[in-house]
Specification:
Length: 175
Amino acid sequence: MTELLKSTDYVDVYRLSRDKKVISGSVRLADMKRLAEMALNPDEVFDYKITGMTGKLGWPGAVVAIGGMVQVPCNRCNKPVDVKIERNVIFRFAKNEEEADAIPIEEDDDTEVIVGSEKLNIMNWLEEEIILSIPLVPAHDYACLAGTKTETAEEEIEKPNPFAKLKGMTGLRKG
Ligand SMILES: [Zn+2]
């Protein structure tokens, strides 16, 4: 049996990084404030593993692995959609907001920057990561509402003539 994370559990991220500590266990959706409201399966448990590390240039960091399934209402039919989440994210801990803002974000880099703390609340941290992994507009990957009036209406919307716009632009370029 893995121990369930408590809402008061925290970690000193600098020690975690320096000592390459590993924290693992489970967290219940119902225990996380925002997810408890969003999830249709609040009894579901997510597994997590946090491994302290040091980045290329010596910055403090950690790898967070989190996995589980959260059910949210479909944006079209309102029935439950299963959202499977398997995340492996590298976090870099900045000293403060200013340092966090100053760290450049590279597009091919999946490192996330957060402001570190000697008392970082683990549950809030994991909850944020789970919420970010849920699609903004969750919907079934099949046409759950196919053939309804809404879709027909969309097809009937008149498309503007693309050539009308092009004509005007040619004139501008030459002038
Ligand atoms: Zn649906």
